[in-house]
Amino acid sequence: MIIGVPKEIKNNENRVALTPAGTQELVKRGHTVYVQQTAGVGSGFADEEYAKAGAKMIKDAAEVYSLAEMIIKVKEPIEQEYKLIKKDQLVFTYFHFASYEPLAKAMVESGAVCLAYETVERVDGSLPLLIPMSEVAGRMSIQEGAKYLEKPLKGRGILLGGVPGVKPAKVLVLGGGVVGTNAAKIAAGMGADVTIMDVNLTRLRYLDDVMPKNVHTMVSNEYSIRELVKDHDLIIGGVLIPGAKAPKLITRDMLKTMRPGTVLVDVAVDQGGCIETCTPTTHENPTFIIDDVVHYCVANMPGAVPYTSTLALTNATLPYAVRLANQGWKKACVENTDLRNGLNVIQGEVVYKAVADAFNLHYTDVKKFL
After folding, report:
1. Residues that bind substrate, according to the entry (predicted)?
2. Which end of the chain is more exposed for a tag (fewer CB within 10 A), N or C?
3. Which one-letter DSSP state was computed for residue 169?
4. Could you tell me if 336 and 317 lie in one domain?
């Protein structure tokens, strides 16, 4: 198979979809890999490393797209890339279709086969290609939240872990999944007073067993959230419904009950956000303020730590990329249910129900194509 790796062009996105090591694995199996020049530089991988691993280096992104049967990316295509994607081309990347209708419609019109990292799902319900970035984003949410609690950045001016004689900050984590667990772990390690909320009692029992004593668990409901946001300093939104829009757990009216300088970090912003007032921001302009509450809503948080993120992501994606390259998307998806669940759009038709429902698009059962 001919595989193309274009350079990511989203604002401050420094990750790359394939490392030199991954390139070598594909090349030794007889595949051709085209990598756009400087695609890996932001993650610490020089063009020479790719060339040594057997990649063919190409200067222009358009040429990478025109040559490739499969495009491997990190982030969803942005507007200037829509026209580069060809009919029947396999695009393997994060799409987050449910959060952005123009992208969904553009990919339907392209006639491409869109296989989304975020909906590749195992039989046990786990999301193997979302987990590594959720781990990074969950840990980063506390790192960024602690920074924006500083007064020069319009926060409350509170140190997350406090000091002897002064209470630590109070951190509220919405969602006990991968993001929430990693956020709570880091916040607790920094000495904060942490509350983690979820609707799943089994999950809360597990978290109660494994978390340190400064992490408290609570069942999530609107009444409890309304009460807790009044006196918590940092609030992390980390809820996920695979492939669908995130539910709005914090509403606009709740902001007026929060203390000035409270910081909100919405890690779910890729899927539409679980905080009503959050809209996607960039690493260049990461925050905005509504009702004296600081909102941090960067849509590609792991892009700020590209070396760690690229290695974590490609460790997970490479086995699937190899399978797709070896077998072709159709046979690979017939034989592997994880990959079959990742199919969102095929040759002009939406085959993932949550995406179709999000925008009232026609839904076609994936079995039609397999």
Report:
1. 15, 75
2. C
3. P
4. yes
Annotated catalytic residue 270: yes
Residue pair 361/347 in contact by the 8 Å Cβ criterion: no
Annotated binding-site residue numbers: 15, 75, 134, 198, 203, 220, 239-240, 267-270, 298-301
Half-sphere exposure of 294 (CA within 13 A, CB side): 28
From 304, 326, 348, the end of a domain falls on: 304
- pLDDT confidence of residue 99: 84
> Looking at 193, 233, 266, 270, which residue is catalytic?
270
Among 96, 193, 233, 338, the active-site one is 96
Q: Is 96 a catalytic residue?
A: yes
Single pTM value for the model? 0.89
pLDDT tens for 206-265 read 999 999 999 999 999 999 999 999 999 999 999 977 767 788 999 999 999 999 999 999
Tens digit of pLDDT for each residue in 19-30?
999 999 999 999
Note whether 295 and 313 are same-domain residues. no
**Co-location of 94 and 224 in the same domain:** no
Q: What is the CATH number of the domain that holds 282?
A: 3.40.50.720
Please state the residue numbers annotated as binding site for NAD(+).
Answer: 134, 198, 203, 220, 239-240, 267-270, 298-301
Tell me which residue range forms the domain holding 270.
131-304
Residues 6+ apart with CB under 8 A from 251: 276
